[in-house]
Design a protein that fits this description.
By secondary structure, this protein is mainly β. It has helices at 69-73, 239-251; strands at residues 27-32, 34-38, 55-59, 87-91, 93-95, 98-99, 104-110, 127-130, 134-138, 155-161, 165-166, 179-180, 183-184, 191-192, 199-200, 203-211, 219-221, 224-225, 231-234. The strands form 5 sheets. The chain has a 5-stranded antiparallel β-sheet with strand order 1-7-16-10-9. A 5-stranded antiparallel β-sheet has the order 2-3-4-19-8, with no helix packed on it. The chain is globular, with a radius of gyration of 17 Å. The model is unreliable at 1-22 (pLDDT under 50).
Length: 263
């Protein structure tokens, strides 16, 4: 179903079938609209203004070079759940050299094939940077590692999957090594966290939707070519709400029919 500005219920946004990797992966989904754009990165260059390429920010309305966990908690959000003060960002996407502004982003918090009862909430203030596990597609197309050069329906989507296993730390020197991806098992359907990062956390995936012309074009980014796409996440949820959602929609999940607000 096509997303509209009227989200009901306000807790989560229901995703279209094309965005669901599996109908049985326990999860909750949020819609967060585009907020703003600047050259800041409070994870990689904290305290340094205009230190990097342009980023597009979703969720927290205040994200800038000197943002902290506490400052984010005090700000507003573009997410349908007002308890989600987290900051999400990516490089600015361009089509034939022209900056695109996203219609919205859908943010999925999933079990990700791990034992759903073991998944823990992200700790307050967790920082994640990922530049792998990126795919692109047209609105009704299949996922590819390279962006399409034409979308007849006029919608371009980029999907970013963040690592979903933690070593217990909230950050690391490279902003990456404290997190790892769960490892697919021999059955092809279950995943297990590696011994180096034994704590299972939600598999955070985000899909960002861009309106584009229906004529041919080329995707580039403020950071360079399409291959430089990356995603950043700074957890500033109201922690009690995040804990409730992980418990109710992932740990205790039974079927989508039993928990419609978690779809």
């Amino acid at each position: 179903a096509e997303e509209t500005d009227d989200i009901n219920p306000p807790l989560v946004a229901t995703a279209s079938a094309q965005d669901e990797t599996t109908s049985f992966d326990p999860r909750f989904t949020l819609r967060c609209n585009f907020s703003h754009r600047n050259r800041d990165d409070p994870i990689v260059y904290p305290g340094v203004k205009d230190a990097t390429h342009r980023h597009d920010f979703f969720g927290n309305r205040s994200t800038k070079y000197n943002s902290t966990y506490n400052s984010l908690l005090q700000a507003g959000t573009t997410c349908v759940n007002s308890a989600d003060k987290a900051a999400y960002w990516t490089p600015t996407v361009r089509w034939n050299g022209t900056n695109l502004t996203a219609k919205w982003g859908l943010f999925y918090y999933r079990a990700g094939g791990k034992d759903q009862k073991t998944v823990k909430p992200f700790p307050a203030g967790l920082k994640i940077v990922t530049n792998t596990h990126v795919t692109w597609r047209c609105g009704s197309g299949s996922a590819q590692t390279s962006p399409p050069t034409q979308c007849s329906e006029g919608t371009l989507i980029v999907n970013i999957a963040a690592p979903d296993c933690s070593n217990g730390k909230r950050d690391s020197t490279d902003h990456r090594s404290h997190m790892a991806y769960a490892v697919e098992q021999a059955d092809g359907s279950t995943r297990v966290c590696p011994a180096t990062h034994p704590i299972p956390v939600p598999a955070l995936n985000w899909s960002v939707y861009f309106p584009i012309p229906t004529t041919p074009g080329k995707v580039t980014l403020s950071s360079g070519g399409a291959s430089t796409m990356h995603g950043d996440f700074f957890n500033a949820w109201k922690q009690t709400t995040l804990e409730y959602l992980v418990r109710h929609c992932i740990n205790e999940f039974t079927t989508p029919e039993a928990m419609p607000e978690c779809k």
